[in-house]
Write a structure and sequence with these properties.
Largest sheet: 7 strands, antiparallel
Shape: rod-shaped
Distance between the termini: 79 Å
Structural class: alpha+beta
Mean pLDDT: 93
Radius of gyration: 29 Å
Number of strands: 10
Length: 186
């Protein structure tokens, strides 16, 4: 009888060790899945969602206008993205014709932060006069907008990772109708 009790106790111990081992493997699997999905830090995206024109003045050789651009910072992470002050540049033919300030803010977890940026444009620095004259006489002006926002993604107040969101958008400004069309971002 003593040996049967030892065998019974041994089988109960093995069963207990098996349960403990199964629990440990399950916990490792949960932690691994959690770290590969939730804890992975993704780069937020920066997009130009809409642009409106104000105070448009142009003739055959130059232009002056104010762009009011809505910029969206889309945070795809499970933690917030806090970014610093930055600048959005608008270029024509590779030359910066205007810039606007992007104020420091925070995009909440898995949300999109929208903000308006006012950009004053002037063609004073453009050196390619013939291309500018041709575009102004045709009534369509092709502009590019560039911006870069640096910040920190914080997940569960434990993980902090620096990320940079970049924007490169092109748009065509129709001068007679004072509208922006073909707004495309990469």
């Amino acid at each position: 009888m003593l040996e049967s009790e030892k065998l019974k106790r041994r089988s109960q111990n093995l069963k207990c060790y098996g349960y403990i081992l199964a629990f440990v493997v399950f916990q490792i699997a949960v932690i691994l899945i959690f770290s590969l999905t939730v804890m992975r830090v993704k780069t937020p995206s920066l997009r130009l969602t809409s642009v409106t024109l104000q105070n448009l003045n142009y003739n055959t050789t130059s232009f002056d206008m104010t762009l009011v651009a809505q910029i969206a910072v889309k945070n795809k992470n499970f933690g917030h993205f806090r970014f610093d002050n930055s600048t959005a540049n608008v270029t024509y033919g590779g030359v910066i014709v205007g810039d606007g300030d992007i104020v420091k803010a925070r995009a909440k977890a898995r949300k999109t932060r929208r903000m308006n940026v006012t950009i004053e444009l002037s063609s004073n620095g453009v050196s390619d006069d013939t291309k500018l004259r041709n575009d102004l006489s045709s009534g369509n002006l092709t502009l590019s907008s560039l911006a870069s926002v640096r910040g920190k993604v914080t997940i569960m107040k434990v993980m902090k990772k620096r990320k940079t969101a970049n924007m490169n958008c092109t748009m065509i400004v129709n001068l007679p109708s004072q509208t922006v069309h073909d707004l495309a971002c990469e």
